[in-house]
Amino acid sequence: MRDEAMPEVKNPKLSSWDVAYALNMAIACLIAYWIMTHTLSRFVDESSDFLGGMWAVVATVFVFRETRHGSLSAGIARLIATSVSFALCLLYLSLFPFTPVGMAALIAIGTFVMALLGRREDIVTVGITTAVVMVVAAKSPVDAWQQPVLRLADTVVGIAVGVVCQWTGSYLFQSAIGAREAQ
């Protein structure tokens, strides 16, 4: 029996933009992953290498929005949230080893900081980033302070690749549509 409160979903058709958008995002994710895994492999072990690639892909997907403005806004939001998490985690891990209570405290402090900055919509991103950094630091307690630095680098690469690929793909798609309409 169908829930009456749920609207009926019709079988939507994919547009050429949907196909181009999906392919563009996939290419951007591949580029971000490749950049980070090939860059980090020179400096870190294999598990950190893969984590860096995954984190860059997450940042790429996060900023890949429907419009150029949306992608840029998401990129800025992601960078601010990651920077807050980076600062908190770096300070903490430079002084103390990972503890669950320390992680929870950093998430609370990150929440307060984002609220004070008027960026409540980015609290979730700070919390997720902090949790990932702290848990990875727990798994790699030697030089744990490096984790915030590495995750910041992964995020910056992912944001840059995501925004550039979204803007480039959007421009190329619009140019192709304009050329087709001009014929």
Explain the layout of strands and helices.
Blueprint: H1 16-40, H2 46-63, H3 68-95, H4 100-116, H5 123-139, H6 146-182
Please explain how this structure is put together.
The chain is mainly alpha-helical and 183 residues long. Helices cover 78% and strands 0% of the residues. It contains 6 helices and no strands. The chain has helices at 16-40, 46-63, 68-95, 100-116, 123-139, 146-182. Helix 2 (46-63) crosses helix 6 and helix 3 (68-95) packs across helix 4. The longest helix has 37 residues, at 146-182. The radius of gyration is 19 Å and the shape is elongated.
Task: Summarize the model shown.
The chain has 183 residues and is mainly alpha-helical. It contains six helices and no strands.
Features:
183 residues; mainly alpha; elongated
What is the makeup of the main sheet? none
Number of strands: 0
Shape: elongated
Spatial separation of the terminal alpha carbons? 51 Å
| Contiguous runs where pLDDT drops below 50 for at least 5 residues | none
